[in-house]
């Protein structure tokens, strides 16, 4: 079972990177971002932010290679999250196929829910569980998981905002109100994740990247209300991340804290 899990992760990580590349090469439909360039909603970040997919794919491949090493076959971290990440990568590849072949956008939204749920669950187990990731594992294991989980935190709401727009349910004046509601959902999800993942940097930095893209996109499209809301959310999540990182560091940094509380090393 361990071997199947490791192969599944490696194959799915390769697939989620290869499918969009085939689209850009003209070998599999249109480019994956084509539908979202046609239908721009206030929740969709500026176009340049989607370049982060290259980094996400790279770090997910690093993770897939790391977990495939025979020496880590029984690693408890990979046993906790391996099937979740395999499912997320596979769903992401399916999402790309559906988008590139111009299937109804509602199908892409439903498939993306699988990536959303599984990646957030994996991130919670990696960054919120024990033992905490140490050394290089913080990025070789946690990098791809944190980055993809953060990106889908915003992307799932952007995806469904595009679906509603396609159904003509996002005309003004409801468009801005819908955008603020979707943004609030993304912000609440991000706040909970940052709280539970102890301010994990791969997650927090990617959320910041996405929200800066929302700010820039709305300034370009002339929607200052959504831009201001995204900027406020960006600042609030930045403060929360700083607090969680500080709180997580305090027990180890407090002079004699652990030793004084339990001098005999007994529980």
From TrEMBL:
Signal peptide positions are 1-17
Q: List membrane-spanning regions.
A: 47-65, 77-98, 104-127, 139-164, 176-194, 201-219, 225-245
Q: Which UniProt keywords apply?
A: Membrane, Signal, Transmembrane, Transmembrane helix
Q: What is this protein called?
A: Tryptophan-rich sensory protein
């Amino acid at each position: 079972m361990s071997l199947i899990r490791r192969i599944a992760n490696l194959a799915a990580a390769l697939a989620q990177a290869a499918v969009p590349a085939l689209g850009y090469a003209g070998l599999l439909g249109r480019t994956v971002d084509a539908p979202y360039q046609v239908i721009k909603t206030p929740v969709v970040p500026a176009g340049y932010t989607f370049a982060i997919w290259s980094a996400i794919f790279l770090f997910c491949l690093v993770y897939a290679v790391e977990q495939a090493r025979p020496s880590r076959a029984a690693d408890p971290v990979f046993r906790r999250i391996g099937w979740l990440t395999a499912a997320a990568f596979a769903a992401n590849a399916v999402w790309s196929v559906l988008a590139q072949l111009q299937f109804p956008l509602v199908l892409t939204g439903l498939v993306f829910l699988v990536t959303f749920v599984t990646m957030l669950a994996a991130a919670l187990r990696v960054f919120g569980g024990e033992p905490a990731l140490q050394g290089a594992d913080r990025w070789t294991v946690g990098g791809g998981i944190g980055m993809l989980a953060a990106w889908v935190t915003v992307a799932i709401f952007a995806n469904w905002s595009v679906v509603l727009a396609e159904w003509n349910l996002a005309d003004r004046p409801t468009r801005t109100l819908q955008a603020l509601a979707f943004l609030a959902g993304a912000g609440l999800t991000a706040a909970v994740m940052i709280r539970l993942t102890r301010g994990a940097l791969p997650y927090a930095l990617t959320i910041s990247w996405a929200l800066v893209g929302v700010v820039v996109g709305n300034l370009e499209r002339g929607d200052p209300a959504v831009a201001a809301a995204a900027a406020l959310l960006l600042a609030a999540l930045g403060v929360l991340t700083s607090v969680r990182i500080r709180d997580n560091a305090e027990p180890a940094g407090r002079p004699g804290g652990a030793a004084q509380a339990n001098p005999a090393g007994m529980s």
